[in-house]
Amino acid sequence: MSAAGFYDDIASLYHLIYADWEASIARQAEALDGLIREALGEGARAVRDISCGIGTQALGLAARGHRVTASDLSPGAVARARCEAAARGLEIAFSVADMRRCDREGAGPFDVVLSADNSVPHLLSEADIAEAFAAMSRCLGPGGLVLVSARDYDAEDRTTPQLRPYGVRQLPDGRCTVFQVWDWRGDCYDVSMYFVLERGGEPRTVAGRARYFAVGLGRLAALLERAGFREVRRVDGRFFQPVLLGRR
Description:
- The chain is α/β, with parallel strands linked by helices.
- The protein has 2 domains: 3-152 and 215-247, Vaccinia Virus protein VP39 (Rossmann fold, 3-Layer(aba) Sandwich), CATH 3.40.50; 154-212.
- Helices cover 29% and strands 34% of the residues.
- The chain contains 6 helices and 11 strands.
- The strands form 2 sheets. The chain has a 7-stranded mixed beta sheet, sandwiched between helices. Strands 6-7-8-9 form a 4-stranded antiparallel beta sheet.
- Strand 8 (188-198) and strand 9 form a beta hairpin.
- Helix 5 (126-139) crosses helix 6.
């Protein structure tokens, strides 16, 4: 049930969680670029994406002119992101790395360090999160910006089990139904993600499973402050998840 194995298993299909992945790339980049420019001023920045997955945020920020260095724990996801960047003519330095050791990859210091789309809760203890936040701080130059987006777990329904449908996606040669099942276990929960592919013959299911730590945003903010970040604040309504921002 490792996070790396989870994303390796579904990397080729992960874009199907979005109704329109290309539109989501552009929309998320616009939101993140706006937050970066408001905090640091106009101009392209050196951005370190420490949980890039298949590239949803890294691709969009690079397309907007930022100098992006990206890594992820999943070799499969990084391989997919690298292919997507090449297809778009984008220069992004990719590597496979654990976010707790993100400061060992890439030529810093960076202006921005980013972990989007609820990646930090893959770390299953406050000690692990604190280790990652300390590494993120070491990636940045003085005054650098950290951005972390995560689910608001204080507002989540913890009924178990839960079915979370994403929808039916039309493919050139068929369709794919995408859904998750959540099983809560105290302050953690297991996510089983299913892609049911129908391409002429019998349906085929691709699935992966991972565990998350349902850590609250207030606690994440406190851990950022403990790691030495200042002016830590929560921003709602700009990105598809709440974003925590802070300055080194």
